[in-house]
Amino acid sequence: KPALADETLGGRITASTFVLKQPRCVFDRLHEDAVIWLVVALPEAVANFSDNLEPGGPGREFQKFPQSALAYMTLNTTILNYPCDTNSRDITVLRVGSETRCAKDTSRPTCNGPLPGPGPYQVKFLALNGSEPVAQTEWSDPITLRTAQPSTSIPLMDSGHSAGMIALTAILSILFAILLAGLVAML
Amino acid sequence: MAKSDGGMRILQGLLVFGNVIIGMCGIALTAECIFFVSDPHGLYPLLEATENDDIYAAAWIGIFVGFALFALSILGIVAVIKSNRTLLLVYIILMLITYAFEMASCITAATHRDFLTPNLFLKQMLERYQKSEADNNNDKWMSEGVTKTWDNLMVQNHCCGVQDASDWQKYTSAFRKEYNDADYPWPHNCCVLNDQGSPVNLDGCKLGVPGFYNSHGCYDAISGPMNTHAWGVAWFGFAILCWTFFVLLGTMFYWSRVEY
């Protein structure tokens, strides 16, 4: 089941991207030519999801997501990029939503563009040999992105006066009053 | 009369001593306030943009009060030694006026310090950093000041945001309007930079890999100098005023005892 990356990553979930763990040691006995795609879908499209639609084809274009295409496929690569190396301590992650340049380019329907809203979204990995689905993972749990609060909502409540300031003001006022009294008594 | 004469001598000695201390403290106050006004940490634009820079006003008053205290302490020494009633009266009245000004400075500094909360700087950073559309020239000037100050702060102190880097994610901002979220989850100055000023690993920074970006907040770097500034003016001034209180009381007593 695809999972979000470690919590130590500060950019794990932002307003338009999220970071997944790479599917290492997940697909075994996969032909080297098979292409592994990441499917990003709205939760309502998960039930009737058809593995046979062509990535980037009608109903699967990133640029039309989520209005007329309820899912899209991106981040295509082969199993060679996901070697199963349990000793490696490299950070093995996939950032979904990092390609901003092709986000509006309809000639790149498999663009890994920024997600258009906070979601939630569900993802899975699908391996295709040609156009035949040969392996896949389960659907992930729904992933909800961050929604930013408006900066005007930050409260600027009148911070109470600190004890130090009150003490300072009180003492100085009393001292000054005594001095004025002394001046009056003197004259 | 010999005994009270001896008493008067002691009082004179004490008053001269008191005035010497006031004079030295006056110089110290002037020096301290000049140091604060010179803004060694470059944080003044942040205060300017809050349209309330009272701690600077307090420091300016402190400069002049310091000089006044020094001058008046000399007058006081001369007046006490000569036992001249007129001079003593002039001294007391001028000192009271200076006292009032210094009181205003201390109270202003202490009160304004309470106004400088993390939320104030957070809101200001979000609304002004990299703001491009300006309402008028003044607004543009303030936004540019805030942007430059924050850029310096982030690079020199290796920090990001006010509380932490996720401030840029939690709230909308003028920065977010200009720069999209996927390419700039936070400003690039939050990344660990190399000697040329570019991020060492931009992808690592965008991912938020610890070590490639600064996640620590800048609030300490802002509030530290400002607190020193405010408390330096307020409490040193308070100490001087307490001492001056006793010297003035003594001078008033001395004045009432001096024969015409």
Mind describing the biggest β-sheet of chain A?
Answer: 4 strands, antiparallel
Gap from first CA to last CA of chain B: 16 Å
Mean pLDDT of chain B: 90
Provide the domain count of chain B.
Answer: 2
Oligomer: heterodimer
Largest interface, counted by CB within 8 Å of the partner chain's CB: A-B, 47 and 52 residues
Number of domains of chain A: 2
Tally the helices of chain B.
10
Order of helices and strands of chain A: EEHEEEEH
Determine the strand fraction of chain A and express it as a percent band: 15-25%
What is the alpha-carbon Rg of chain A in Å? 29 Å
Count of DSSP-assigned helices of chain A: 2
> What characteristic shape of chain B results from the CA principal axes?
elongated
Strand segment tally of chain A: 6
Features of this protein?
heterodimer; A: 187 residues; alpha+beta; 2 helices; 6 strands; elongated; B: 260 residues; Cd81 Antigen, Extracellular Domain, Chain: A; 2 domains; 10 helices; 72% helix; Tetraspanin_EC2_sf (chain B); transmembrane helix (chain B)
Detailed description of the structure:
The complex is a heterodimer of chains A (187) and B (260). Chain A is α+β, with helices and mostly antiparallel strands. Chain A folds into two domains: 130 residues, no CATH class; 25 residues. Helices cover 15% and strands 19% of the residues of chain A. The model of chain A has no long low-confidence stretch (mean pLDDT 85). Chain B folds into two domains: 148 residues; 102 residues, Cd81 Antigen, Extracellular Domain, Chain: A, CATH 1.10.1450. Chain B contains ten helices and no strands. Helices cover 72% and strands 0% of the residues of chain B. The chains are: A alpha+beta (187), B mainly alpha (260).
Q: How would you sum up this structure in a few lines?
A:
Chain B: Keywords: Membrane, Transmembrane, Transmembrane helix. The complex is a heterodimer of chains A (187) and B (260). Chain A is an alpha+beta fold and 187 residues long.
